[in-house]
Amino acid sequence: MTEKTVEIKNKTGLDARPAALFVQTASKFSSQIWVEKDNKKVNAKSIMGIMSLGVGECDTIKLIADGSDEQEAIKSLLNLIDSKFGEE
């Protein structure tokens, strides 16, 4: 299992478009992937789950992956977050 805590830096947080990109990226991997915020844990491959977290700019989330490609999955999601979802 791989875990990584990261701060969301894009202005819109994980609203509709960034959440969709996040779910699309997570769905490319066979590992189980979760996102945790404020002790609420959701499936990273679920758009409704991600949206339900209400992640905004400067919020901190934890990425958790478990499976054969967990390292690649976390790295890919971190790259997406670092790129600010292409917003800037």
TrEMBL record:
According to the UniProt entry, the coiled-coil residues are none
Supply the Pfam families for this chain: PTS-HPr (PF00381)
Do you know which CDD domains this protein is assigned to?
Answer: PTS-HPr_like
Q: Which cellular compartments is it found in?
A: Cytoplasm
Example GO CC term: the record gives: cytoplasm
Q: Where is the signal peptide?
A: none
Q: Where is the HPr domain?
A: 1-88
Q: Does the keyword Cytoplasm apply?
A: yes
Provide the primary localization: cytoplasm
- What are the record keywords, sorted? Cytoplasm, Phosphotransferase system
Record-linked InterPro entries? HPr, HPr-like, HPr-like_sf
A biological process (GO) of this protein is: phosphoenolpyruvate-dependent sugar phosphotransferase system
The question of whether Cytoplasm is a record keyword is answered with yes
**Protein name per the record:** HPr family phosphocarrier protein
Q: Which Gene3D superfamilies match?
A: HPr-like
